[in-house]
Amino acid sequence: MTPVQVRGEVLAVKPIGSYLSMTVVASGIAEQTRPGQFVAVAVGGDDGSMLLRRAFSIHKVATRGVFGGTVEFVFAVHGKGTAWLARQRPHDPIDVVGPLGKPFALPKDPAHCVLVGGGYGSAPLFMLADALRLRGCRVDFVLGAASADRLFGALDAKRMAASVAFTTDDGSYGVPGRVSDVLPEVIERTRADVVYACGPMPMLQAVYSVAAQSYGGAGIPAQVAVEESMACGVGVCMTCVLPVIDDDGRTRMSRSCVDGPVFAGDRIRWDALGTVPADALGAAAMAAVAGAEHQGAVVAGAER
Amino acid sequence: MPDVTIRTSYDAVAMPDVDMSIDLAGFTATDPVLTASGCAAAGQELAAFNDLTVIGGVVTKSIQLAPRSGRPTPRMAETPSGMLNSIGLQGPGVDAFLQKDLAWLAGEGARAVVSIAGSSVDDYAKLAGRLRGHPVDMIEANISCPNVEDRGQVFACDPGAAAAVVAAVRRTAPTHVPVFAKLSPDVTDIVAIAKACVDAGADGLSLINTTLGIVIDTQTMRPALAGVTGGLSGPAIRPLALRCVWQVHAALPDVPLMGIGGIRTGVDALEFVLAGASAVQVGTVIFHDPSAPTRISRELRAALAARGIARLRDVVGLAHRPPVLTVPESPDPPGDEPVAASSAPNAVTFEEATHDH
Q: Closest residue of A to B81, CA-based?
């Protein structure tokens, strides 16, 4: 799998509930995409003032048809970059890099899988459900959001899954509360073997905890796709890091764009998110410099 | 906004014949565009988007003696035509770097400029020494780091400290490998720092590193970066970087310079060359366009060709020449018709000369 940079073309921008979906003609990306991977999209045009790419999970791909390969992703208008995306119209050029990141790992043998999505974080889970069902897996969904209009993919989930549980914070649809409130019951009822999740970090942490404590503490694996803010998406900028336990047992500040975005839940240092834990590789070297900075008035300047 | 088809058909056109080769104190390449430190990791991730054997070289992320975790997140904030970063020099340490990253670059046939960073003069000396026997094409000393032996004072902000680092690196570095110092613009007199580095043995200078900035998150009402301050980069700092290149080239015209700071297109790169840079490094633009090194080189070549310039080297520092008189001394008569010898001169009338100054 080698990511490609494609000077593509917008095929469609359409509202889906509270969100927008953009479909881009970008041959070379669609053919390679596996569930959980993402694209990094340049925003603002070639002469614009926004330099950083915006990363979006791939929702759907089509490798055939009159347009060749197409890639669809889902977004909400949060800032100037997504506002620009929302203004794009069919045939506008758009620069897309993908597919990026590590995809969800699929079970070798048929298994019972619970797919948990928060808000439009559920976008990549439907490709995953397709792939799992092709392998003979049972798929059940838990979809949650702040309110009914922010649930994403309810119809797709109902069509694909053996069961779907909905939660909303305000109780406007499904069970009032969080996905992690209903997940223990779903795991027990479906005799789940594995949980897949995508959504905000606090949700992922709660889902991981539920999975780890299921079956009276025996636990089942959880694979989570994290959402860290990225600048490049391709592994060179080092901004999207989080503390992750590596194969050798050491905690490293791992890049969510190339080492993730999908991680095994038990590898993430949930307690230390947003910090560099003292036992992380190279943390000691930082402490030495920080000490020197506090001695004097001058703070480290232009280092990257 | 350029059309898709324009760029595609442009690709198919044969490259204009321009000599783009560079020689910076013995660092040679056929292409003048390198990746800037901290924006290309150690090159591997960019190989999917650029032919690393064709671009001028890969300047690695600054390497230190020991592994470093870097700072907590958030490490980045987007700013108008730029970004602020506070990564904290996350890296694997020199041992892992030599075994894995540098060996990979050499295996690919890429030119490797190894950026080194330390917390003391001795750190830099040790790092440069560790590079002996390894496939290093240039050493770039990132001196925009706090000196733990001097209250965290940044080396690049003091001529004496900058010179001490350069002298130590030059002393221990492999003999035939050029040593460049990368300067910070956050100084009162960049020429003084540049001279100190050159006097201490720097073979050339890389201008510039990022300039310090702050972004405040108006939701949390706190600084946006965990590290509070960060380095500002991108086109926002291009005029500042150009000014530094201009000043240093004017003062030290024989010292080879790498121009760095907000280069986004080949024409931007040409500005740096005209100001006095013999080569350029592109950084933040890579986050926007991972194939930027290749694209910018192509655009620079086209820009030179469009100006009838056959050799990049011929225009290094050209903008420093005195303004050219725009009125030729002996204007050719309009048209090519010979003036008949027998024809009588036309009567010429003059306007009254005015003295309105």
A: A49
What's the CATH number for A4-100?
2.40.30.10
Closest CA to A130 of A34, A22, A211, A32: A34
∠A161-A164-A169 over CA atoms, to 5°? Answer: 150
Note whether A120 and A152 are within 8 A (CB).
yes
Do residues B51 and B297 lie in contact, with contact meaning Cβ atoms separated by under 8 Å? no
CA neighbor of A226 nearest in space, from A250, A243, A213, A212: A243
Cβ atoms of B150 and B191 within 8 Å: the answer is no
CB B228 within 8 A of CB B212: no
- Within a domain: B75: yes
CATH topology of domain A112-225: Rossmann fold (3.40.50)
Q: Could you read off the pLDDT of A62-80 as tens digits, one per residue?
A: 987 666 799 999 999 999 9
Lowest mean per-residue pLDDT among B31-40, B190-199, B344-353: B344-353
For A102, the 3-state DSSP assignment is: strand
CA angle B133, B136, B139 (to 5 degrees): 115
Q: Which residues of B touch A302 (CB under 8 A)?
A: 144, 154, 156, 184-186, 209-212, 231
Determine contact, residues A35/A225, Cβ cutoff 8 Å.
Answer: no
Q: Does B327 reside within a domain?
A: no
Q: Are A98 and A70 in contact (CB under 8 A)?
A: no
Asked if the model's pLDDT at residue B12 lies above 50, the reply is: no
Partner A contacted by B248 (CB < 8 A): no
| Three-class SS state of B310 | coil
pLDDT in tens, A112-166: 999 999 999 999 999 999 999 999 999 999 999 999 999 999 999 999 999 999 9
In one-letter notation, the amino acid at residue B356 is: D
Hey, are the CB atoms on B152 and A236 less than 8 Å from each other? no
User: CB–CB of A285 and B67 under 8 A?
Assistant: yes
Q: Give tens-digit pLDDT for B250-259.
A: 999 999 999 9
Residues constituting chain A: 304
- Residue ranges covered by each domain of chain A: 4-100, 112-225
Q: C-alpha angle B294/B296/B301, rounded to 5°?
A: 100
**B217 near A CB under 8 A:** no
CB contact under 8 Å between B45 and A234, yes or no, is yes
Which run of H or E residues covers position A99?
strand A93-100
Amino acid (1-letter code) at residue A8: G
Residues in chain B: 357
Is A91 near chain B, with CB under 8 Å? no
- In the block, residue with structure tokens 């404590």: A213
Structural domain includes residue B148: yes
How many C-beta atoms lie closer than 10 Å to residue A138's C-beta?
18
Residue B145 designated active-site: yes
pLDDT tens profile B56-109: 999 999 999 999 999 999 999 999 999 999 999 999 999 999 999 999 999 999
